[in-house]
TrEMBL record:
PANTHER family: PLUG DOMAIN-CONTAINING PROTEIN, TONB-DEPENDENT RECEPTOR-LIKE BETA-BARREL DOMAIN-CONTAINING PROTEIN. Its main location: membrane. Residues 464-906 form the TonB-dependent receptor-like beta-barrel domain. CDD domains: ligand_gated_channel (cd01347). It is a multi-pass membrane protein. NCBIfam families: TonB-Xanth-Caul. It comes from Luteimonas flava. This is TonB-dependent receptor.
């Protein structure tokens, strides 16, 4: 058995052992076991069919309103002795009304169970609609929140055919994703750059395996090990301030979320249409409650997926060849063949000491391994004929055939020890100690390159930019068209060997202290807190090369001996001949690596390395006040940032290695003000002003300097860090209206505006280097200002009141419009920010009735700019618009068993990048359809 399956099997076996009947200890939890204080009502709300705790239920006592926590608990304090009406309101469930008696010397305990409005009893059998109940839980949490947040439960996300957390977030209003070979990786919120969004697990910021960006690579985390996703778009003073676009919080599951045993498992298999690769997914969750009062919870959740992905990829890089003329300068035809293995395991221990005290410990470990082979034909063009342009022309061509084997191994591990404690009637103490660690190792990363000895004239025609035509001129042994060259043209060029390692660690401590206040409003709370975050990051890049033709000749083989019968056939159009055998690194690389000609590349192995240490110390004050239907949150946060970085610079003339260090400290005051007005229990108006920052990427502040070679125009490219680059600061305005539909649904609209000071860009400037030479220095710089604004619309509804079979229909839809503008450094004009798509929307038609659950989901994202070419803005890189249609279905067999199926990318849509305008296609990538079918069990 593989190690990954061993881990999952061990987790299931261990928790099954814990789940064995223990009549002496595993009793249902009850608030009656703890006497409430005088002047206090303590209660718990759960649903009737499965005993699941209902978070976000709105409880009203004597005109005062509170909401339940994730375990369904609520408390109302400061009540005089007497009899009070109690109301519990929860969308999708029948409303509860009762009276509660508060005594002279002790308070009252209440347990409330609610029934779904669609649970119909027929001969003692209750119909339960799982995704509907999941939607109800998410909407109620969103409704009860005092600030603007979108909540999507894991059960609802599980109805979509998503492979990882990034893909799950794309279903949320205002959230879109960037993909790698068709699979979601980075998250963009409301058209802001990916670095503007923070990602947390139970409030713990995730360390990031990406060495070049603060944007978290969310393809590392499976979508099967979470309880819910919470997207906060207007942060409050008690939240970390580095979230201009917002925060995505991944909530883990707890055994205390429901009564009794929790057991879910599924197994599925399928295929990827392109390349016929395997598509496998397995997950299991098991947990139980222990102790005399059922107040101890243990839960383990694990997931494994394996994806045999094949990708067709064609790239054309455009360059300026005249004052107003561009032309293709490099063409790459790539076949990707890889296996992606994703594993995740989460363990959670909760100890509810009593209704006043909770301690919990969560461990989460996610791992993503991508082993990939890439066959590549690279065509470099120069010496253009007169009249050549971006559409047609002639040039001299150089051909390289390559095979790269690359495996990277990414992991994110998080430890979280936390507690919640009520201290008497008035005070509450929360604390959290956490550690998050991310690593990314790229090894092996080896590459054979063979170059053609023939450099013929090459004619190109890009009248069809997606499928151009190429013709080799003047060579009778060349193909009549295309680039399937004779194998005899190629000879050994070099063997590249590379190793990369990056890691990031964050240790954090948080303490919050709050109490009730009576000096502002009819009721409310005041809260203070401090937080410390210490983050360390490093990156090491080692590069080696052997370009000795004699070493290769010593192997006694030719280029053709390294090829197998498999043919490259990109998009059934781009034909490049036989592909490389996959074992040629194992069979032939050894002597080349052991040769004295295998040399370390300096400065390449030194100047890209860096280390950084960032310490953030924060304190805040927050006050909540209620006036009947109006709730206010006001407060201020202060964050002090201390940054130190180190890197190596290489002196080309002397060969000396020069250590460099840099440091910077700065502080930010971050005020915020939020209002929530409840026009009626189903209509809520929210308004917010908040401030936030975005700290520069670590690599941008490291004092590195990489000097390239001079080009044909004697321009020497220099890339360097800028330790003095400033953090971006944003003022955010949000306005939203939510109308909750009975029995279950939501219609909402939101407007947002962000003014950003000192937006960050990677920009270039030219400096004289000497007679006839110019240094083109590229580094991070601040623009003067920028802005993002837009609107969101959302509609969710189940049509339970329709007659008969139609009552299973539902809709889940949202639309986001965003526009951004920012001033570039050096007075170079204005541009949109990276990641801003004008239009982003989701439409899902759902059906759930009589055991059948089906969902047809359409997602669309319009084009957006990815990166800037400051010297040639006409060649800025854009992702083109893309739509995808996915389908998922399941059918309940009974006794907890169901079967399910998924189909992704039904329309077989491609992914396209272009430079400046659509006819300059930089990259066209196809990854085909995929399907999956399996069986699921839930107790």
């Amino acid at each position: 058995m593989s190690p990954s399956r061993t881990v999952l099997a061990a987790a299931i076996a261990a928790t099954l052992a814990l789940a064995c009947p223990q009549p002496a200890t595993a009793q249902p939890s009850s608030v009656d076991t703890i006497a409430a204080m005088a002047n206090t009502i303590v209660g718990k709300v759960s649903e009737a069919s499965r005993g699941v705790s209902l978070e976000g239920a709105i409880v009203t006592v004597d005109g005062r309103q509170v909401s339940t926590d994730r375990e369904g608990f609520f408390r109302v304090t400061g009540l005089a002795p007497g009899r009070y009406p109690l109301q519990v309101d929860y969308l999708g469930y029948t409303r509860h009304l009762s009276d509660v008696e508060v005594g002279d010397t002790r308070g009252a305990q209440v347990e409330v169970t609610l029934r779904s409005t669609v649970a119909a009893t027929d001969m003692g059998v209750v119909e339960v609609r799982a995704s509907r109940d999941a939607q109800a839980m998410a909407l109620n949490q969103q409704r009860a929140s005092t600030n603007y947040v979108n909540v999507v439960s894991a059960d609802l996300l599980g109805q979509f055919p998503d492979n990882n957390i990034a893909e799950s977030t794309q279903r949320i209003p205002g959230v879109s994703i960037e993909r790698d070979q068709g699979e979601g990786r980075y998250v963009t919120v409301r058209g802001a750059p990916k670095e503007f969004t923070t990602v947390t697990i139970d409030g713990v910021q995730l360390a990031n395996p990406d060495a070049a960006s603060r944007g978290v690579e969310l393809d590392t985390i499976p979508s099967d090990v979470i309880a819910a996703l919470e997207v906060t778009k207007a942060i409050t003073p008690d939240m970390d301030g580095d979230a201009i676009a917002g925060n995505i919080n991944i909530r883990t599951q707890s055994a205390l979320d429901r009564e009794g045993l929790t057991l879910r498992a599924s197994a599925a298999g399928g295929k990827y249409q392109l390349g016929d690769g395997d598509n496998q997914r397995y997950n299991a969750t098991i947990g139980n409650r222990f102790g005399a009062d059922g107040n101890i919870g243990v839960l383990i959740s694990g997931s494994i997926s394996k994806q045999g992905r094949f990708t067709d990829n064609v790239e054309t890089l455009y360059s300026r060849i005249g004052a107003d003329t561009f032309a293709p300068s490099e063409i790459q035809i790539k076949d990707y063949e890889g296996l992606r293995t994703r594993k995740g395991i989460t363990g959670r221990f909760d100890y509810r000491i009593n209704p006043d005290n909770l301690v919990y410990f969560v461990v989460s470990d996610s791992n993503f391994v991508d082993r990939e082979f890439r066959d590549n034909l690279t065509i470099a063009l120069d010496n253009y004929a007169t009249g050549s342009d971006e559409t047609t022309g002639r040039a001299r061509a150089t051909f390289d055939k390559e095979l790269r084997e690359r495996t990277y191994d990414k992991s994110i591990r998080t430890y979280n020890l936390a507690g919640e404690h009520f201290l008497g009637e008035m005070w509450k103490l929360d604390w959290q100690a956490s550690q998050s660690r991310a690593t990314k190792t790229t090894s092996p990363r080896m590459q054979y390159i063979f170059r053609s000895s023939v450099r013929p004239q090459f004619a190109y025609d890009y009248a069809n930019p997606d499928f151009p035509t190429w013709t080799i001129l003047g060579r009778p042994d060349a193909p009549a068209s295309g680039v399937n060259l004779p194998e005899s043209w190629y000879a050994f060029r070099r063997l590249n060997d590379r190793y990369e390692y990056g890691e990031e660690d964050e240790n954090a401590l948080r303490v919050d202290l709050g109490r009730q206040q009576t000096f502002l409003g009819d009721s409310g709370d005041i809260k203070f807190g401090v937080r410390a975050r210490q983050r360390d990051k490093m990156f090491d890049d080692e590069r080696y090369r052997n370009g000795s033709a004699s070493d290769f000749a010593g192997l006694g083989i030719r280029y053709s001996d390294m090829l197998c019968d498999s043919l490259s056939n990109n998009f059934d159009y781009f034909l490049t001949g036989r592909r490389f055998c996959r074992d040629i690194f194992d069979k032939y690389a050894g002597p080349l690596l052991e040769s004295g000609n295998h040399a370390r590349l300096i400065p390449d192995s030194l100047t890209g390395d860096y280390r950084a240490e960032e310490n953030v110390y924060a304190g805040y004050a927050r006050i909540d006040a209620n006036w009947d239907a109006l709730t206010m949150i006001a407060g201020v946060r202060y964050e002090r940032t201390e940054l130190e970085g180190s890197a190596l610079q290489f002196d080309e003339d002397s060969g000396d290695v020069l250590p460099q260090t840099a440091s910077r400290s700065y502080g930010n005051v971050l005020p915020s003000l939020h209002f929530r007005y409840e026009a009626n229990p189903d209509s809520i108006l929210r308004a917010a002003y908040s401030t936030a920052i975005n700290r520069p990427d670590f690599i941008h502040t490291a004092p590195y300097r990489v000097i390239g070679e001079a080009d044909d125009l004697n321009v020497i490219a220099i890339s360097e860090g800028n330790p003095l680059v400033r953090e971006a600061f944003a003022h955010n305005l949000d306005l939203s209206f939510e109308h909750y539909l009975r029995p279950l649904g939501l219609m909402s609209a939101a407007l947002f505006y962000k003014r950003i000071d000192d937006p960050l860009f990677v920009a270039s400037r030219d400096e004289a280097a000497g007679p006839g030479q110019v240094f083109r220095i590229t580094r991070a710089e601040n623009g003067e200002k920028g802005r993002i604004y837009g609107a969101e619309l959302s509609w969710q509804q189940t049509f339970d009141r329709l007659p008969g079979a139609l009552s299973g229909l539902g809709v889940y839809a949202n639309y986001t419009y965003a526009k951004s503008k920012a001033e570039l450094p050096f007075d170079l004009g204005e541009t949109e920010l990276p990641g801003t798509s004008r239009t982003n929307y989701n439409v899902a038609l759902t059906y759930e009735k009589s055991g059948l659950n089906a969902r047809l989901a359409y997602n669309y994202r319009s084009k957006f700019i990815q990166s800037f070419d400051i010297s040639n803005p006409e060649l800025n890189v854009y992702w083109n618009d893309r739509a995808s249609l996915d389908f998922s279905t399941s059918y309940t067999l009974g006794d907890g068993w169901s079967v399910f199926g998924e189909i992704n990318n039904i329309q077989d849509t491609k992914q396209i990048r272009f430079q400046g305008q659509r006819n300059r296609v930089l990259e066209m990538e196809g990854f085909g359809r995929s399907w999956l079918a399996g069986v699921r069990y839930q107790f």
